[in-house]
């Protein structure tokens, strides 16, 4: 790669579990005697043979098995300083950068995944706010310098929220955490604010799941065609996509057999896409998808929140998010919508589902990700909403379309109904990465809850003007313990901000 081709890497902060992601290298915490906790074994590989040669000198290194796993000691005989932890982390990342690790096809940069180091068994948990701030600064700098995309992953809601707070503060102070221009950052803040207020809904198209290795519509049709005995007619490609699916259904033994083949091809991906996790981190209560897979549900569940109710097969429950699957679900073979017949009969069979999408377009701001707006049913539903609103004075922009297609003409078709965020880049992989960076910024501004605020372990994130107020709030929480039930709402509010929790 020439100097002119160099692309700075980006630091992504994700709420979930490392084993759910596809990455090219992973950093696993251990100690000076090479103790690897059991919960790291799904990503650490064969721990019994992985101990780097000469361990613990140096106290970081690649697995002896040759796998793309790097170990770093976060606990020596003496407690590490933050400076030493960060030094080891920087050296580890530079080792990874210089290692012979190929970039997978379809991805702009190599990815390195790691947890928030040192705040667990590393013994620095009492100073997690300060440690987190130092780690974020170092990771952002190394990502940009080395050209690595770094995934900082935590399942802990308080740590995730605190990290996003720290990034917002750094951005407000002039530090560039996102390679986005001022207009794009303003849009990310606006959408994040809508999510924080509960006013943002999601629409996920096939492009989101393609990043997890699932096929596009065209690839799905091609794979199905390969199952037809005797091959396809020469003029098959001249058929419309829906008619191609209808033709395949007749050749494969009917709609049910076609749907079984679809589920086999899609399979059950082991990894979620980065976009799934970023969208899950926005904690939106309502989502709609034309995808059959269960990757978004898994991404939400990995944050510790309830897995979404999948409509129309499960009931909506109070306090639980829901996901409407317009075109069927991988766990329900008969529900798959794919052929011309399926689309023609969609309204007759699934009118309430379409009405629910229309209700979101009328009452929420809908963030559209990974879609092309070429789906006939979705177009019809959106245009019916637009026609309805033209009769009133309430016509307004009803959503934001994040476009990775590279076809700018589509923006002109929908300019009166959707805001448009065009992800620039010559190759699709570059446009997808641009989308991921944008969603990372949206997620940072959506995470405005603060379950860490009154937790003493995060004091390192507070500035002087706020620290005194926080200390008063903690004193109030202690006094409220002896108060009557009348003050239960106050106790609950203080507890939700981290007051008087058991930090053992």
Describe the structure.
It is built from 19 helices and 13 strands. Strands 9-10-8-7-11-12-13 form a seven-stranded parallel β-sheet. Helix 16 links the parallel strand 12 and strand 13. The mean pLDDT is 89. It is globular. The protein is an alpha/beta fold and 504 residues long.
Observed structural traits:
Leucine Aminopeptidase, subunit E, domain 1; 7-stranded parallel beta sheet; 6-stranded mixed beta sheet; single chain; 504 residues; 4 domains; Rossmann fold; alpha/beta; 13 strands
Uncertain spans: none
Q: From the coordinates shown, what is the CATH architecture of the largest domain?
A: 3-Layer(aba) Sandwich
The proportion of strand residues reads 5-15%
Major sheet attributes: 7 strands, parallel
Radius of gyration, in angstroms, nearest whole number: 25 Å
Percentage of residues in helical conformation: 40-55%
Count of DSSP strands: 13
The CA-CA distance between the termini, in Å, is 49 Å
Q: What's the rounded overall pLDDT mean?
A: 89
Note the total helix count: 19
* CATH fold type of the largest domain: Rossmann fold
At the first level of CATH, the class of the largest domain is: Alpha Beta
- Give the name of the CATH superfamily of the largest domain: TPP-binding domain
What's the layout of helices and strands?
Layout lengths: L10 E5 L9 E6 L10 H4 L2 H4 L9 E3 L6 E5 L8 H17 L12 E4 L13 H19 L2 E6 L2 H16 L9 H15 L3 E5 L1 H5 L6 H9 L15 H12 L2 H12 L7 H7 L5 E4 L5 H7 L7 E3 L10 E4 L14 H5 L1 H18 L1 E5 L6 H15 L8 E5 L5 H5 L4 E5 L5 H19 L17 H17 L7 H9 L8
Parallel strand pairs: 1-6, 2-4, 2-5, 5-6, 7-8, 7-11, 8-10, 9-10, 11-12, 12-13
Antiparallel strand pairs: 3-4
Helix pairs in contact: 3-4, 4-5, 6-17, 8-9, 9-10, 11-12, 11-17, 14-15, 18-19
